[in-house]
Amino acid sequence: MIEKIQNRISNRSFNLFGFAPLMRAAVMIPLVEINGELHVLFEIRAHTLKRQPGEICFPGGKIDEADATEQDAAIRETCEELGLEREDVQIIESLGVLIPPHASSIYSFVGKINDHKKISPNKEEVEEVFYVPLDFFLKEEPEVHYIRLGVKPEEDFPFELIPDGKEYKWRTTRLPEFFYRYEGRIIWGLTARIMYEFISLIK
Fold first, then answer.
1. Coil, strand or helix at 100
2. In sequence order, what are the beta bridge partners of 20?
């Protein structure tokens, strides 16, 4: 039985323990060369979208069953949103997995768009794109502000089953929110968090 247990655990694929129900998404930080200088491409989400209309983001979206890997999902979403073909996009490296404090897991990749002149945004999803020199992020530190997350049990929660009942001391979490200001645009939220991780690694 011990051998069977060991085989079951050791042969499983990478797993975020306790996070199986989370929505899985993949995004790409697209690097573009303009006049010999590397830039980062950002999208402004279409104002007709139900989720986060008008917000600044990276290309990406939900990982579908048809996607062979998380990387394939990031490439597919980038191509769909920017009107590109797969050969137009080159993956440089995986950045890792971000687990935000809500029901999702975000697989992040750094990529390169070979020719930005081919970009033709899908207007159903993307209002417009803009570019920020990579050097800007290397030189400018983001503003950092904090939010505090707490626990709010639902009305039917069985307080009688836990120590101290309704007086139980739930843990709270203090999380940083990063803000980059560039030419009147505010890059914040998960996009800024992913960007900050990327810049921290390459500095």
1. coil
2. none
Find where tokens 């048809």 sit: 66
Chain segment 38-65, per-residue pLDDT in tens? 999 999 999 888 888 889 999 999 999 9
The pTM score is 0.87
Which residue, chain included where needed, has tokens 């417009």? Answer: 128
Query: Which of 41, 36, 39 is CA-nearest to residue 121?
Result: 41
Judge whether 47 and 53 are in contact, CB under 8 Å: yes
Sign of CA dihedral 63, 65, 66, 70: positive
Which tokens sit at 53? 């209309």
Tell me how crowded residue 5 is: count the other CB atoms within 10 A of its CB. 9
pLDDT at residue number 142: 97
Q: How many Cβ atoms are within 10 Å of 18's Cβ, its own excluded?
A: 7
Question: What's the start-to-end Cα distance of the chain, in Å?
Answer: 49
The CA–CA distances, whole Å, from 71 to 77, 117, 122, 124 equal: 10, 23, 21, 23
Measure the CA dihedral 175/62/109/59, to 10°. Answer: -90
Beta bridge mates, 23: 104
Q: Is the pLDDT of residue 24 over 70?
A: yes
Q: What is the mean pLDDT of the chain?
A: 90
Q: Is 25 helix (H, G, I), strand (E, B) or coil?
A: strand
